[in-house]
Design brief:
heterodimer, A: mainly alpha, MetI-like fold, 2 strands, globular, B: MetI-like fold, 2 domains
Chain lengths: ~300, ~290
């Protein structure tokens, strides 16, 4: 209690100590209760489940670390991790590069710039399920507009989502489509904070457009790039709805990423305990990336 | 800047840069059309009669546009109910969750209390827990509360919105302490201070939270899919996902695209009206 009377180091005014002691708990209370019931409690149950062998809830048998040992020798898990890696590497740099290119282009005084920005942003607002059904229809092998257009050009149709060798590429393309607007908006915000005098000075010094981009814009955007990188990786690791609707992880196992495998183990294979263990593996992976993100943010703050 | 044609000093450079600018605009317009095409195609397919859309003919506009797909799917499926459910869940959920987030953000930003750091850290960690991991246990909790198949099963667990709390805290850190001090010196109580002094400075924050919250709830899929069971109690995305494997239609894709259109249009309207807040909200989820 007496600690509250000491001078504050965090800049809060001295007068705050006269406040009613109950007040913060009243304000944070609803969030705290909801957090306990719908976040913390389910996580605790999930951890408990991961040490059980159970098809449904409540009748589990404690099996120690058996689920975790199963993971080590599970060939499907290895495939799912590989698919996750391919999906992440396919989506993240692509979306960021296109987003950056659009941001740089739309940061110039172009006619119709506002409208163009809005158009590139629009795919962001569509639900994953909506994107999934639209794209399933466009890439439908028999009646889809993609193959109809290829036929009109005198080319043969592609199997898009129906062949294991092309399904992942199609999915990556679709997810990149949903994400370029986000990358563009974040990059545009960062570009607008680069002082115009800097670019003018570089131009007066005789730097070409490309040189200015490489030597000035890219380094100035580095903090934004690192934040976007981590965010996009987290998005990709959690991407579910679009894959669920478009391929359900198939054909075969070709588009089953880790999060898909968690869902499938729990609901299709009825292995709740194993699914919980897989889910916690995913949480650990996400945790690592989020810690990286925090470090990146800290570094960004130091740079600014 | 470069529109001044009266400068005779560098007319060639001027003309070249203007031509390049138009070229760039043309390229960007072409790319933008490609980017918007899937949404355009959704609307076109919804307006195309089954005979034309289920063919290998290439077209960009239906020969005989029709609203048949809409009337058919609205007659055969409870689409109005789905829309009503979605609207109820999204608006009530957003309203309550904005209150929860504002309260939590205010406490975390402007009070020192025991366990504050720990609580905030615990909140932030939940961002990384994908819903698939806690889906089954969260369902168990919801079932214990007797909420399965009720809109409250969708609303309650999503009221705790970490990103919302995070944005609220960041915003409220910027509200000057002097303002709160002054209210206290005037003899205002805690609640009065919050509602009369702090809240009126928060309207931009509320705008961002409302738009983000509404969009996320309107688009939410997996959790409603698990807790809603009767066809009458589904939300639009869940209803839409049940249509893709329904053999009941003569032109299933047209019907699916009609419902997809109905699912996107409300958000599109919100986006067009509040574009600035919308973009700002999306950006603020990522930047800080």
């Amino acid at each position: 209690m007496s600690r509250l009377d000491e001078p504050r180091k965090d800049g809060l005014g001295r007068g705050t100590r006269r406040r009613a002691r109950w007040a913060p708990y009243v304000f944070v209370g609803p969030a705290g209760l909801l957090f306990l019931a719908f976040s913390l409690l389910p996580i605790v149950i999930a951890v408990a489940l991961s040490f059980q062998d159970t098809a449904t809830l409540g009748d589990g048998e404690w099996v120690g670390t058996a689920n975790y040992r199963t993971m080590l020798g599970d060939p499907l898990l290895r495939t799912a991790l590989l698919n996750t890696l391919v999906f992440t590497i396919g989506t993240v740099p692509t979306a960021m590069a296109i987003g950056l290119a659009l941001a740089v282009a739309l940061n110039r005084p172009l006619p119709g710039r506002g409208l163009l920005r809005a158009l590139f942003f629009v795919p962001m607002i569509a639900a994953g399920v909506v994107v999934g059904v639209i794209m399933s229809w466009i890439f439908n092998p028999d009646y889809g507009v993609a193959n109809n257009a290829l036929a009109a050009l005198g080319l043969g149709g592609l199997p898009w989502l129906t062949s294991p060798s092309t399904a992942m590429i199609t999915l990556i393309g679709v997810v990149v489509w949903t994400r370029i607007g986000f990358c563009m908006v974040i990059y545009l915000g960062a570009l607008q904070s680069i002082p115009a005098e800097l670019r003018e000075a570089a131009a007066i010094d005789g730097a070409s457009g490309w040189q200015r981009f490489r030597r000035l814009t890219v380094p100035m955007l580095a903090p934004t790039t690192s934040i976007l990188l981590i965010l996009n990786v987290v998005f990709s690791l959690q991407a579910f709805d679009v894959i669920y609707v478009m391929t359900g992880g198939g054909p075969g196992f070709s588009t089953t990423v880790l999060i898909q495998y968690v869902f499938r183990s729990a609901f299709a294979d009825a292995r709740m305990g194993y699914a919980a263990a897989l889910g916690l593996l995913l949480v650990v992976i996400l945790l690592v990336f989020t810690l990286l993100r925090q470090r990146a943010t800290k570094r960004a703050e130091e740079l600014l | 800047m470069t529109t001044t044609t009266a400068q005779p000093a560098q007319p060639l450079r001027e003309r070249r840069s203007r031509r390049r600018r138009w070229l760039l605009t043309a390229v960007l317009t072409a790319v933008a059309m490609l980017v918007v095409f899937p949404l355009y195609w959704m609307v076109v397919s919804a307006l195309t009669p089954g005979g034309q859309s289920q063919s290998s003919e290439f077209y960009l506009w239906p020969a005989a546009p029709t609203t048949e797909n809409f009337s058919e799917v609205f007659a055969q499926q409870p689409v109005w109910r789905w829309l009503g459910n979605s609207f109820f869940v999204a608006s009530v959920g957003t309203a309550l969750s904005v209150c929860v987030s504002l309260g939590a953000g205010y406490a975390l930003a402007k009070f020192r209390f025991r366990g504050r750091g720990l609580l905030y850290a615990a909140f932030l960690v939940t961002i990384m827990i994908p819903i698939q991991v806690t889906l089954v246990p969260a369902f168990l909790v919801t079932a214990r509360l007797g909420l399965v198949d009720s809109p409250w099963a969708v609303i309650l667990p999503t009221l705790f919105d970490v990103v919302g709390i995070f944005i609220a805290r960041q915003f409220l850190l910027g509200v000057p302490d002097a303002l709160i001090e002054a209210a206290r010196l005037d003899g205002a109580g805690e609640l009065r201070t919050f509602f009369r002094v702090v809240l009126p400075t928060c309207w931009p924050l509320v705008g961002v939270l409302v738009i983000l919250g509404f969009m996320n709830r309107w688009n939410d899929f997996l959790w409603p899919l698990v807790v809603l069971q009767g066809n009458e109690s589904l939300t639009v995305p869940v209803g839409l996902s049940t249509l893709t494997n329904s053999p009941a239609f003569t032109s299933p894709w047209g019907a699916v695209m009609a419902v997809a259109t109905v699912a996107v249009v409300p958000l599109l309207v919100v986006f067009l009206v509040f574009q600035r807040t919308f973009v700002q909200g999306i950006a603020s989820t990522g930047i800080k």
